Amino acid sequence: MGAAVSYPYTQLRRVLRRYNAQNRALKFIEKEKLPSRSYEPEISDPKIRESIKELYVKNKQLDDYLKKEKQSSSKRPLPVKRIRDNSFLFYEPKIPQPNCCTLSSSLEIIAKHLKEPNKWNVDALSEEYNLQKDSVKNLLMYYSLFTREDFQFINKDRKENEEQVALEFVKRTRLEKIPLKQIEDKK
């Protein structure tokens, strides 16, 4: 019942609101508009205009002079590559936080240990890089560098099934990590 009573009221309100809208719109459009302000030209001085025209004219004498004259270079060569070489494609801090190492330093740790394991043992590496012995030990135990043999192994078997390649790679790495004495004892 409430909707039936309010419907005629809304219709009447709409008619009153829209009453004479066309005439009001025409009056607004036809109203005299104020002319826009005319600005003086920026360059009013004739001397300035002439000097600007001279600037834009091509001077052949200057062109010939520049072609004849060689530029003198400085003694030191200019830098060819302005961007610092980032082999990891992200910013690496120069001084890492205490008990932390950067990606490049962790790769150096692993490489040093692989080249000379007697000289670069856990104690020497932890002193050199200011790391805890446990973290260096874990780094050497659980991470390894991607060697050339591994790369050739993966490229050779890429045509085969991916699962089979992964299983062979895991078996091969497990055999490398187990010392020969343990393998001989099991036989």
From TrEMBL:
Q: Which domain of life is it from?
A: Eukaryota
Entry's Gene Ontology BP terms: mitochondrial respiratory chain complex I assembly
- Renumbered to this chain, the signal peptide range is none
Spell out the GO cellular component terms annotated for this protein, sorted alphabetically and separated by semicolons. mitochondrion
Q: Which InterPro entries match?
A: NDUFAF4
Q: How is this protein named in the record?
A: NADH dehydrogenase [ubiquinone] 1 alpha subcomplex assembly factor 4
According to its UniProt entry, this protein's organism is Pediculus humanus subsp. corporis
